[in-house]
User: Fold this.
Amino acid sequence: MTKARPTAVLDGLGSCLPPRVLTNEDVKRRGSLNTSDAWIRSRTGIARRRVAEDDISTGDLAVAAGRAAQESAGALADLVLVATTTPDRRCPATAPEVAERLGLGPVPAFDLSAVCSGFLYGLTVAASLVRTGVCARPLVIGAETYSRIVDPLDRDSAVIFGDGAGAVLLRPGDRAEPGALAATDWGADGGGADLIAIAVGGARRPDPEGRTSREERSFRMRGRQVYGQAVRRMTDSSRAVLAAAGWSPDVVGAFIGHQANQRILDAVADRVGIPASRCHGNLRDVGNTAAASLPLALAATAARRRVQPGTATLLTAFGGGLTWASVALTWPAARPCDLPPEPRTGPGTTPTEHRRNPSWTVSTTIS
Ligand code: UT7
Assistant:
C-alpha cells in the first residue's frame, strides 16, 4: 500500500508591529488631506495603523515575525519565503538576509511578489513543497513597510495602508490535525496591472536621475475600480476553494479576508454566505498591511482565542497584479508569539540586545 502524502500543517504563528501609531487625524495632518477620522472609519473601518520609523525596515519586521513564528512552533525553519512589495533593496531579495539573521544557515530563501495576495501565494507554494517532500518546515513571512512607498498626499492609499509583518511556520502532518491545509485556489489577471502600481523605477521606466514626479514614483491605487475587483475576485476564489475542499459555506467557522477595507470584507462574507459573527481580523488597529495583512490577522485572532483549534477556516486575499488567492484550512492549535522589530543597526544596540530591552516591547492590544 502506498503511503498518503503528508499535508502541510500550520504549526507556528508570529507577528511584529512597529511601535509608532498613526491615527486617522495624523494621516490627515501629514498630507494636508481633505478627509476626516469619521470618513475613514465609516468608509474603511480603519482607526489607526502602525508605521516604521526610518531605522526599521521590512527585513527588520520580517526577522522578528519569523523568529516569533519559530518560537511559537518550538522549531526552526528549513526554508524562508518572504512575501513583500517593499523589499529592503531592489536587489538582492530580502529573504536570504532574514534567514541569515535568524541563524538558519544555508537554507533556501527567496522573496515572492504578489502584492496583497503575497502571503497566500507564499502559503500555497510552501504547502506544495511540504507535500512533495522538498522541505519540511518552510517559514512563510508577509512583511511590508508601505509607509516608504505610499504618497502621504494621495487620499486613496494614504488613509488605508500601514506597516507590519506576520509569519507562519509549516510542518508535514495529516488532514485530521488542527492547522491542516485542505485546499488552495489562486489566480491572476495582468490586464489590471495599472490599477495598483508604481509607474516608475522598474526596468520599463528606470528613472535613475529621479526626473519623474512624486506621483509617478509613488504607489498608486485606483480605489473605486480596485474595490469592485476585490469583491468579485475574493468572492469567486472563496467559492472555488470551498468547492475544492468539499465544504459548504455553513461549515466555515472562521473567515479572515485581506484587510483592505471593512466594506469589502463585509461584501465578500455576505456573498459567500458567512455570517458576521464568524468574520475575524484586526483591520481597525493596523489598516491595510498588504502581504502582512493575513498573517497579522491570523496571529491577532489566535491571541484572542475566539476560534477553537480544528474549526473550518477560510482565508482569502486580493491585490495588485491583479492577483488573488484563497486557502481552506482548519484553525491551528499554535499559540501566537509577537516580538518587537529587530533593527539591523539600532541606536547603539545589536538585534539581540533589542530583544532584551524592555523599552522595545510592543503592546499589540487589539480589541
Ligand atoms: O490592498 C489591495 C487592494 N486594495 C483595496 O482593495 C482597496 C480598495 N478601495 C478602497 O478601499 C476604497 O475605494 C477607498 C477607501 C480607496 C475609497 O473609498 P470609496 O468609498 O471607494 O470612495 P470613492 O472613491 O467612491 O469616493 C466616494 C466619495 C467621494 O465624494 P463625493 O464625490 O461622493 O462627494 C470622494 O471624493 O468619498 C470621497 N472620498 C473621500 N473623502 C474623504 C474619497 N476618498 C476620500 C477620503 N477622505 N480618503
Remarks:
- The chain has one domain: 7-355.
- DSSP finds twelve helices and 14 strands in the chain.
- The radius of gyration is 19 Å.
- The pocket of oxa(dethia)-CoA is lined by residues 35, 39, 43-44, 116, 155-156, 159-160, 221, 223-224, 226-227, 230, 260-261, 264, 288, 318-319 (CB under 6 Å).
